[in-house]
């Protein structure tokens, strides 16, 4: 799933190309991806792109209607979605149900992009909105962890009293926006913290360490993504991972073997030596979790 650093990479890429261009096409190929009907998606055609920004994992393309008002094309790539950029948008006809393309958008210089989604479980979401806060997922977002106003004390306030495992807290978009399965693994590895540590039980020193690990991990990942075209962002993400997606490989910090815990539709990765005092966490599919 694309998370904050990759989404920011997409935003930076689009922000360097789209402002000032006019939308010439907005075609839905998978009607299930379109989550709004008012305003209609085709209301974006003939509007001019003003800016591109990010809200958590949502991309927001703001356009001006010419009447002192704006419209927003907002999308969330979900687990298997991605953006495919074209300097010259293909003229081929999109056949609904016969392609992974969910949305095609074109611009006045001939460029454009497709939003695609792999697999059979379709979760990619597209919205046309007068205000990004009209999108339910954005309206519910917690603070962005790289917002200058989000400091160590803000994190401590979010964690206080939560009898929830810290892995789940980091992934909950209503608590902290933008972090998902991959970067929560990376942050907890950098903090040398068990994914099953309860948020409410973290000491002041633990919170200091976690905050620093969060800031550094995300900032480094965004720096890695910066300037890369969409086609290169996924590989850059994989190369930057120390434990996530590296089951059976060697931990780059201590040399122990990276282990996994599997759930219904995903897994987490961790280093026993760095994070759990050498204890192995039980596979959720087979037995109860070891604390």
Automatic annotation (TrEMBL):
Necessary cofactors: Zn(2+)
A Pfam family recorded for this sequence: zf-FPG_IleRS
PROSITE patterns given in the database record: FPG_CAT, ZF_FPG_2
FPG-type domain sequence ranges: 242-276
Catalytic activity: Hydrolysis of DNA containing ring-opened 7-methylguanine residues, releasing 2,6-diamino-4-hydroxy-5-(N-methyl)formamidopyrimidine
InterPro entries: FPG_cat (IPR012319), FPG_N (IPR035937), H2TH_FPG (IPR015886), Ribosomal_uS13-like_H2TH (IPR010979), Znf_DNA_glyclase/AP_lyase (IPR000214), Znf_FPG/IleRS (IPR010663)
Coiled coil: none
Domain Formamidopyrimidine-DNA glycosylase catalytic per the UniProt entry, residue ranges: 2-114
Keyword set, alphabetical order: DNA damage, DNA repair, DNA-binding, Glycosidase, Hydrolase, Lyase, Metal-binding, Multifunctional enzyme, Zinc, Zinc-finger
Family: Belongs to the FPG family.
Protein name per the record: DNA-formamidopyrimidine glycosylase family protein
Species name: Microbacterium schleiferi
